[in-house]
Amino acid sequence: MEKSIQDTIHGVIKLEDWMVEIVDTPQFQRLRRINQLGFANLVYPGANHTRFEHSLGVMHVTKLLQERMGFDDVVVAAALLHDVGHAPFSHGSERLLEKYASYNHETISKVVRGELKDALKNLGFRISEIEAIVTGKRRSVVNGEIDADRMDYLVRDSHYTGVAYGVFDIYRLIDKIKFDGAVVIEQGGVKAAESLLISRFLMYPTVYFHHVCRIARKMYERAMERIIEAGFEAENLLEMDDVDAMMLLKEKERETYDRLNNRRLFKRAIYVSRRSLDFREVMRTSERRAEREVAEMAGVDERYVIVDIPPVEEMRESGVMVDTESGLKPLEEVSPLVKALKDAAVENWRLGVYTDRRFVDKVGKAAADYFGIEKVVQKSLDEIFPQ
Question: Residue 9 in 3-state DSSP?
């Protein structure tokens, strides 16, 4: 007997009995209490949607693709479970687990336990096979250059933030996808794929890497690092939700708890693009070491200096294959627009140095000296306007 769920994005989502058995486990229900976008609601008040509804959405998109392609139910199960390994505040805990527990949220075998493990066993699913799909070791529509995960989260995150950039024709794209060892876009789906990449290109700086989201995430990350280094087992995060994490901060890191809870966040002392510094050298820099040295140069407590060197987001989607009249070709070869977006994506990168509002000026000056920012800018000006 099917159950129906009314979803904000897709309308009615049908759950078969076996899906309900997975969804009703405590391990899956925990996703109701993990915010999809971490601390983005401090910027966009409506961004309170969760990993639970996103997981249902990815399953729904995968089910629609299954109806066209005929793959087996284990792929649909993997879509449903692809985010069950997320810790509190989603990607806000990712680096903590990578650093202290050698864990990635796609390694779901570490969190599939108890009732969820029993349910999968009863249903005849092998955890190792599901994990292979989630991690991309087994290629599927769940994890790839263009996949069900991206198709759901861009539209969903756009809706809940109120940012219109994430809108694209998801159902046209679903209708023009096929699977031949990997996802392939039919020629008639190129415009829909271009629209997805435009959405991604605009959503990253506007939502996912918005400076306030980055500041709150790094404040949380640094506070949790101090708690872990004081003896807390990082793997415990895998059984916690957002409320549990905030209560832990309240007990162990009260100042950070109060700041996050009341939106009294650090401010930007430095926030510059790769053109303002020696980019390759910065990417080799340890954030923690830079924080210690900038704090010492500025004469402030190290707790009040955060250096944020984010990864460069690669536009993997540009490599998805398109079935053209002359054979399979990467999307970036078929579409000049996609090629331009891929080249421009790195321009969204920013180095951030954040601090308490009291120390913005002196931390900003120390950080500029530390990273050689003023020298790089002056060198560029000298090249443009030679003396």
Answer: coil
73-81 vs 127-135: helix axis angle to the nearest 10? 70
How confident is the model at residue 164, as a pLDDT?
A: 86
Using alpha carbons, list the distances in angstroms from residue 93 to 96, 132, 266, 357.
Answer: 5, 22, 19, 25
CB atoms within 10 A of CB 299: 10
∠96-39-7 over CA atoms, to 5°? 110
**What is the C-alpha to C-alpha distance for residues 269 and 103, in angstroms, rounded to an integer?**
32
Rounded distance between C-alpha atoms, residue 326 and residue 336, angstroms: 17
Helices 127-135 and 114-123, interaxial angle, to 10°? 100
| Cβ within 8 Å of residue 83, ≥6 positions away | 31, 51, 54, 55, 58, 105
The pLDDT value recorded for residue 377 is: 45
Crossing angle of helices 242-252 and 254-261, rounded to 10°: 130
pLDDT value at residue 131:
96
For the chain, which residues score pLDDT lower than 70? 1, 375-387
| pTM recorded for the entire structure | 0.93
Instruction: Scan for tokens 């200096």, then name that residue.
Output: 305
Q: Residue 380's pLDDT is what?
A: 43
Q: Look at residue 167 in the predicted model and tell me its pLDDT.
A: 82
Cβ atoms of 42 and 263 closer than 8 Å: yes
Quote the CA–CA distance of 86 and 31 in Å, as a whole number. 8
Separation CA 204–CA 166 (nearest Å): 10
Which secondary structure element, helix H or strand E, spans residue 203, and what is its range?
helix 190-203
Q: What interhelical angle do 211-229 and 94-101 show, nearest 10?
A: 30
User: CA 13 to CA 172: how far, in whole Å?
Assistant: 18
Across 237-267, b (16+ Cβ under 10 Å) vs e yields bbebbbebbbebbeebbeebbebbeeeebbb
Residue 375 is predicted with a pLDDT of 56
Q: What is the side-by-side order of every strand in the sheet holding 183-186?
A: 177-179, 183-186, 321-324, 327-330
